[in-house]
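Tyrosine-type recombinase/integrase
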Amino acid sequence: MDELAEWIEEWRLELESGRVSASTVTVYLRSARQFAAWLAEAHPGLTVEEIDRKVCQGWMRHLAEQGKAEATRRVRGLALGLLLGYVAGEADSGLTTNPAANLELPTPKAPPVPVVSDDDLAALLRACDGASFVDRRDTAIIRLLLDTGMRRAELVGIDVPHVDVRLAEVMITGKGGKARIVPFGNRTALALRKYLRARARRGVGEGGPLFLSIRATPGRGFRMTGGGVADMLKRRCQAAGLSPIHPHQLRHTWAHDMLAAGAGESDVERLAGWSTPMMVRRYGASVADSRSRDVARRLARGDRI
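Structure:
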């Protein structure tokens, strides 16, 4: 549908000129183009101004019939609403209202991500024992992830000046460029000190990226990548005889441990760099029932009488 394709192209320019990440733009445009392809097949000859709510609902039914996951259908519906909202906002489009506004969209229920047990964490760290540069680096990475719950993208974005080992704090730049300062424990501070000494022996200077890879990556130099962190964990898990642990599992584990230790949801939300309390409730949800039972046992209301 050439007319809709032109609107999608114009919408692309609008998205790319705003505060939308490149990955989000890619997802939105893919959704819009899939809708356009379906529309051309299901409703040949239909003009943009003839797109109504029934057509939009038909698109959502089509996705369900195709067996698309709830999360996928939700994103497709959101993207359609944004696209047609933009078109309806242009006086010369012929579309006076957004037919996809307030579409009923599925709310996916994310499966809980299992937390990592203390025994497995201890085995993982034992697999990093050694005095080599890589051993020191990997130990510091794992401990920093465990103590702060930061995302792997945040981890690899840290520069040396962002870390204060004496105060045991690190400044993290999260999504949207928002910076936050989070603390870490003594063992992590010790691991970072040992790693920084090993780093200094490589003659790379006191500034620049904190965590360095062995080989340079085009466009990033020796700064470690998020993929490199994931590969490192996979390799260390294999050496420890463990099932693969994804970096995000350490974030879930951190959130669970914080909540289990009595931290308030707002505290966890701020330290994790989340913008909504819904994320706090999701992280560590796989053992939420266990935490609730532990709280009840500590309270033991009847024992006080």
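The chain has two domains: 2-88, 118-295.
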